[in-house]
């Protein structure tokens, strides 16, 4: 086994999110709503050397698979990420994330006057555009630091 394989070893059942943009691992955990109190085994590699990215982060979560909404947000934080499903220590499925057309209910609009921030039963909805995501209610655009606008937690 090479050193590289050792780094991404070895969970029994769960999800390995690999090729995460360096510096985004904690945001990925926030997307998953994981802060350590849930009892999932979690390990994180940050700024690990990567042939393709220079350096990358890796997030491994035992006993947890990802919803499509979670994968959609991860694609915005880490466009090169791969999501590996692990069962009995084997990777049974490996998927590159894809940018969705829109994300609903997962981000908070930065515009305090936006109806999605009022006390109304309206879920946030953002259309994914070339340079970020745009609120479909007020037009506000989030270009960077999408991880700062997560609606989770
Ligand atoms: Zn808005």
Automatic annotation (TrEMBL):
Its cofactor is Zn(2+). GO terms for cellular component: aspartate carbamoyltransferase complex. It comes from the Archaea. Binds 1 zinc ion per subunit. InterPro entries: Asp_carbamoyltransf_reg_N, Asp_carbamoylTrfase_reg, Asp_carbamoyltrfase_reg_C, Asp_carbatrfase_reg_C_sf, Asp_carbatrfase_reg_N_sf. The keyword Transferase applies. Keywords: Metal-binding, Pyrimidine biosynthesis, Transferase, Zinc. It holds the Pfam family PyrI_C. Zn(2+) binds at residues 109, 114, 135, 138. GO terms for molecular function: metal ion binding; transferase activity. One of its GO terms (biological process) is 'de novo' pyrimidine nucleobase biosynthetic process. Residues 102-145 form the Aspartate carbamoyltransferase regulatory subunit C-terminal domain. Residues 6-98 form the Aspartate carbamoyltransferase regulatory subunit N-terminal domain. SUPFAM superfamilies: Aspartate carbamoyltransferase, Regulatory-chain, C-terminal domain (SSF57825), Aspartate carbamoyltransferase, Regulatory-chain, N-terminal domain (SSF54893). Belongs to the PyrI family. Contains catalytic and regulatory chains. HAMAP family: Asp_carb_tr_reg. Involved in allosteric regulation of aspartate carbamoyltransferase. NCBIfam families: ATCase_reg. This is Aspartate carbamoyltransferase regulatory chain. It comes from Halorarum salinum. The lineage of its organism: Archaea, Methanobacteriati, Methanobacteriota, Stenosarchaea group, Halobacteria.
């Amino acid at each position: 086994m090479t050193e590289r394989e050792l780094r991404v070893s070895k969970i029994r059942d769960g999800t390995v999110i690999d090729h995460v943009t360096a510096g985004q691992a904690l945001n990925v955990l926030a997307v998953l709503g994981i802060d350590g109190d849930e009892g999932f085994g979690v390990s994180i590699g940050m700024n690990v050397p990567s042939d393709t990215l220079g350096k990358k982060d890796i997030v491994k979560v035992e006993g947890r698979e990802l919803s499509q909404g979670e994968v959609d947000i991860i694609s915005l934080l880490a466009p090169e990420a791969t999501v590996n499903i692990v069962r009995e220590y084997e990777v049974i499925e490996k998927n590159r994330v894809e940018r969705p057309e829109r994300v609903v209910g997962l981000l908070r609009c930065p515009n305090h006057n936006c109806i999605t921030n009022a006390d109304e039963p309206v879920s946030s909805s953002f259309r994914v555009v070339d340079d970020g995501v745009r609120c479909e209610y007020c037009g506000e655009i989030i270009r960077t630091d999408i991880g700062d606008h997560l609606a989770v937690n």
